[in-house]
């Protein structure tokens, strides 16, 4: 699963998309194709137990 948070440029709503399934990124609320790329939170480290 490659789920990431995106933000619509038109309505400004944030939504999650799975790029493994979705080829075309669209806003599920207004259907706009202009989407901001998600801000990567790479600083977080997750320990695997
Ligand atoms: Zn939208």
Keywords, separated by commas or semicolons:
binds zinc ion, Rubrerythrin, domain 2, 49 residues, cytoplasm, Znf_C2H2_type, 3-stranded antiparallel β-sheet
Structure description:
This protein has 49 residues and is an all-beta fold. It has one domain: Rubrerythrin, domain 2 (Single Sheet), CATH 2.20.28. The two termini are 20 Å apart. Bound molecules: zinc ion. The site of zinc ion has 8 residues, from loops.
Q: Stretches where pLDDT falls below 50 for ≥5 residues?
A: none
Output the CATH topology.
Rubrerythrin, domain 2
Q: What do the pLDDT scores average to?
A: 82
Name the strands of the widest sheet in spatial order.
Answer: 2-1-3
Any idea what the radius of gyration is? Answer: 13 Å
CATH architecture: Single Sheet
Q: Compute the separation of the termini in Å.
A: 20 Å
| CATH C-level class | Mainly Beta
Succession of helices and strands: EEE
Count structural domains. 1
Strand content: 25-35%
Biggest sheet, open or closed, and with what strands and sense?
A: 3 strands, antiparallel
* Apparent shape: elongated
Figure out the total of helices.
0
Helix content: under 10%
Count of distinct strands: 3
Catalytic activity: RNA(n) + a ribonucleoside 5'-triphosphate = RNA(n+1) + diphosphate
Pfam families: Zn_ribbon_RPAB4
Main location: cytoplasm
Binding site for Zn(2+): 11, 27, 30
